[in-house]
């Protein structure tokens, strides 16, 4: 049998709400952690993609700015116009993200094939990137929509494709690698096409 004094103690205990906040916080905390860490990882992924987009545009723009009477070399150019310097600029744009796994593919498309068909005039790959071909132009773009595909055409354009395996620094929600790809197109600014000394076609049409 419960004595009156014990009954009042139990009643006071039942009415006590001093630990409610702690219990509620313990229940809500896991959800808050998921939201906070998930937002952080999603924001980092978005930043990585935006940096990749800016890096692709930078690479295509620098290649297209190759001056007249200048051959774009693989590396060691006395005037600074080479793929090594352009790739270094891409790495700077990607900072502070690590770039050891960043793959870069460069190509120049001209219209010197049969009846002005598009052809790859030259290509350059960095870090074992997959070479760009007419059949595999990024974003399923048709070369004919980017240049004048007619007999005797002197038109051309530069295409750069970057591939970056992004891994979250905390891997709480995004616990796998995201392969990001971005491409950019540009036209040579100072000559019909950008010549190089790497491939067989080193003279602009």
Give a description of the structure.
The protein has 205 residues and is of the alpha+beta class. The protein has one domain (18-186). It is 34% helix and 18% strand. The protein contains three helices and four strands, in the order αααββββ. It has helices at 4-15, 20-64, 83-94, and strands spanning 103-110, 119-126, 156-166, 178-186. α2 (20-64) runs antiparallel to α3 (83-94). The model has no long low-confidence stretch (mean pLDDT 84).
- Counted by DSSP, the helix tally is 3
How much helicity do the residues have? 25-40%
Major sheet: 4 strands, antiparallel
Number of domains: 1
* H/E series: HHHEEEE
Strand-pairing-aware structural class: alpha+beta
Low-confidence stretches: none
Can you list the strand order of the major beta sheet? 2-1-3-4
Rg over CA atoms: 29 Å
How many β-strand runs?
A: 4
Strand-helix topology:
Blueprint: H1 4-15, H2 20-64, H3 83-94, E1 103-110, E2 119-126, E3 156-166, E4 178-186
Antiparallel strand pairs: 1-2, 1-3, 3-4
Question: What descriptive keywords fit this protein?
Answer:
single chain; alpha+beta; 205 residues; 3 helices; 4-stranded antiparallel beta sheet
């Amino acid at each position: 049998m419960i004595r009156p004094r014990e009954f009042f103690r139990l009643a006071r205990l039942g009415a006590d709400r001093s630990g409610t906040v702690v219990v509620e916080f313990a229940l809500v905390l896991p959800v808050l952690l998921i939201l906070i860490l998930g937002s952080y990882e999603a924001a980092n992924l978005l930043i990585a993609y935006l940096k990749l987009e800016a890096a692709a545009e930078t690479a295509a723009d620098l290649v297209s700015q190759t001056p007249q009477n200048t051959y774009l070399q693989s590396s060691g150019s006395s005037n600074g116009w080479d793929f090594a310097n352009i790739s270094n600029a891409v790495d700077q744009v990607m900072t502070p993200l690590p770039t050891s796994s960043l793959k870069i593919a460069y190509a120049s498309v001209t219209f010197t094939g049969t009846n002005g068909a598009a052809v790859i005039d030259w290509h350059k790959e960095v870090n074992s990137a997959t070479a760009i071909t007419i059949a595999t132009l990024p974003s399923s773009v048709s070369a004919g929509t980017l240049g004048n595909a007619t007999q005797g055409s002197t038109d051309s354009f530069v295409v750069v494709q970057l591939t970056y395996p992004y891994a979250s620094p905390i891997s709480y929600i995004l616990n796998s690698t995201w392969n990001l790809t971005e491409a950019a197109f540009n036209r040579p600014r100072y000559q019909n096409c950008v010549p190089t000394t790497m491939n067989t076609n080193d003279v602009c049409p």
